[in-house]
């Protein structure tokens, strides 16, 4: 006899949406008296507090700093130098043509002195040309920033989809637990009746044993369902940040989706953030080729220096001021082939990035088609399982009445009761699949976001931080105060 729990877990995990879900599902072990949680509320929690999403936001902000770094290559650099020390001077000076006339005359003079020496200098350098490395570096930084934003958008989609799945899994496992608990209760009553009838010699020992076997299996399924619920609760807390309390039923978001598979695929290829991120990475790889090639071009700088020396050459109160401004040209002639090797490497990385973008497009197309297929399958299965559950209820009622007049056995009742449980669990599974698949299709087309779902939450805007740092020339503090 197939297990209801096994039937449910064989495919996608089920959810409670219509079956036994007129009111909010209550989780007694985790339910303080408070308002019921909704799908929108849970997604808003995940959007605000999920660590994966928050660390991706940190990464996007870090990538923003690549633009001022690239622009710094074309900005002036100023270096100040100070030097202070002690200078000891021991100077011997010969005296040419010294004649003594019998009187000793020194042939040289000797001077000893100790002086504190100080030097202050300032050097400024402004690049005028560097093989367009500044311009290409800025363009590459912009591509990296746009790619980071798309990666952030993709992470947001994945987090919201995981949160929706976790929400539905808790509903699902709660529904299964309720179904199996009711099944155990019914089997316990069936066993009591079978034993009473056995004592009256209306049924055989075999009938009692069959009921005992079904009850033992039902209790085992119930224990497994409790474990599955605990796992789902843990997953929920990991993704959404809190334990589930009272969860309201959730609806599919099919009204936000395209109506045909062709439209789904076209929208996915045009808008999915994973594809857009890969395309920006391709642009950055192409610019990397130009950046390395720029190292083979001449470099032209304007250099200005001023220097003030105190006690020059160890001579007290001797001062020297020197100022210079001029052009500086550096022409690479041969560097051992290292730059040429990096140019070839960059070209191969660019080719790799293009192939990765093509691969990403194929992956997105496959995900979109699979999600759409699961959604359509869930719609069909809901209709069939609703019919199966309704028919199984009628059949069980009929078998019980026929058993009262001796036309059916206890085994027939148990078999039909198990068929009803399986049909209800399968219906719950299909209902869960429909909701999750609708969110999966929304993610597949690249539009699963807090904005599209109209979540009541402060939405993160990556351009705010970008605008704060793009023209920042100096400062250690981040705009957030770090």
Strand percentage lies at: 5-15%
| Helix proportion range | 55-70%
Low-confidence stretches: 1-33
Mean pLDDT: 86
CATH-defined fold name of the largest domain: Outer membrane efflux proteins (OEP)
Q: How would you describe this structure to a colleague?
A:
- By secondary structure, this protein is α+β, with helices and mostly antiparallel strands.
- It has 2 domains: about 5-75 and about 130-295 and about 340-470, Outer membrane efflux proteins (OEP), CATH 1.20.1600; about 75-90 and about 110-130 and about 300-330, Single Sheet (Outer membrane efflux proteins (OEP)), CATH 2.20.200.
- About 60% of the residues lie in helices and about 15% in strands.
- The chain contains 11 helices and 6 strands.
- It has helices spanning about 5-10, 40-50, 50-65, 65-70, 135-200, 205-240, 260-270, 275-295, 340-405, 410-445, 460-470, and strands at about 25, 75-95, 110-130, 245, 300-310, 320-330.
- The strands form 2 sheets. It has a 4-stranded antiparallel β-sheet with strand order 2-3-5-6, with no helix packed on it. Strands 1-4 form a two-stranded antiparallel ribbon.
- The longest helix has about 70 residues, at about 135-200.
- Residues about 1-35 have low confidence and may be disordered.
Defining key terms:
482 residues; Outer membrane efflux proteins (OEP); 6 strands; 2 domains; alpha+beta; two-stranded antiparallel ribbon; single chain
């Amino acid at each position: 006899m197939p297990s209801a729990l096994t039937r449910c877990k064989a495919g996608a995990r089920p959810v409670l949406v219509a079956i036994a879900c007129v009111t909010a599902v209550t989780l007694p072990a985790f339910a303080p008296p408070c308002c019921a949680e909704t799908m929108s509320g849970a997604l808003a929690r995940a959007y605000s507090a999920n660590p994966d999403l928050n660390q991706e936001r940190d990464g996007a902000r870090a990538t923003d700093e690549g633009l001022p770094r690239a622009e710094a290559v074309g900005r002036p650099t100023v270096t100040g130098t100070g030097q202070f020390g002690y200078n000891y001077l021991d100077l011997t000076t010969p005296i040419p043509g010294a004649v003594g006339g019998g009187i000793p005359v020194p042939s040289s003079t000797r001077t000893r002195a100790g002086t504190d020496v100080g030097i202050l200098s300032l050097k400024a350098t402004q690049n005028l040309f560097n093989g367009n490395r500044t311009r290409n570096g800025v363009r590459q930084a912009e591509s990296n920033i746009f790619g980071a934003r798309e990666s952030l958008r993709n992470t947001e989609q994945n987090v919201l989809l995981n949160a929706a799945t976790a929400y539905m899994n808790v509903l699902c496992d709660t529904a299964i637990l309720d179904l199996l608990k009711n099944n155990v209760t019914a089997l316990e009553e069936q066993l009591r009746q079978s034993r009473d009838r056995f004592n009256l010699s209306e049924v055989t020992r075999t009938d009692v044993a069959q009921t005992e076997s079904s009850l033992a299996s039902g209790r085992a399924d119930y224990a497994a369902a409790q474990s599955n619920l605990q796992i789902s609760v843990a997953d929920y807390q990991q993704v959404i940040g809190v334990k589930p309390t009272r969860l309201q039923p959730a609806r599919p978001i099919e009204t936000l989706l395209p109506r045909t598979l062709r439209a789904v695929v076209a929208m996915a290829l045009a808008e999915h953030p994973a594809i857009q991120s890969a395309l920006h990475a391709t642009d950055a790889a192409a610019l990397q080729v130009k950046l390395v090639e720029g190292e083979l071009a001449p470099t032209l700088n304007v250099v200005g220096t001023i220097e003030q020396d105190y006690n020059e050459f160890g001579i007290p109160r001797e001062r020297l001021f020197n100022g210079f401004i001029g052009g500086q040209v550096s022409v690479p002639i041969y560097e051992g082939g290292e730059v040429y090797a990096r140019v070839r490497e960059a070209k191969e990385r660019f080719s790799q990035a293009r192939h990765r973008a093509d691969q990403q497009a194929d992956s997105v197309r496959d995900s979109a088609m699979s999600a759409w297929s699961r959604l359509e399958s869930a719609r069909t299965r809901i209709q069939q399982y609703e019919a199966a559950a309704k028919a199984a209820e009628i059949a069980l009622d009929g078998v019980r009445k026929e058993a009262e007049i001796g036309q059916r056995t206890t085994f027939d009742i148990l078999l039909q009761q198990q068929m009803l449980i399986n049909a209800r669990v399968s219906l719950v599974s299909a209902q869960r699949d429909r909701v999750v698949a609708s969110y999966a299709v929304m993610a597949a087309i690249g539009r699963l976001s807090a904005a599209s779902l109209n979540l009541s939450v402060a939405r993160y805007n990556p351009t705010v931080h970008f605008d704060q740092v793009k023209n920042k020339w100096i400062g250690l503090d981040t705009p957030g105060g770090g």
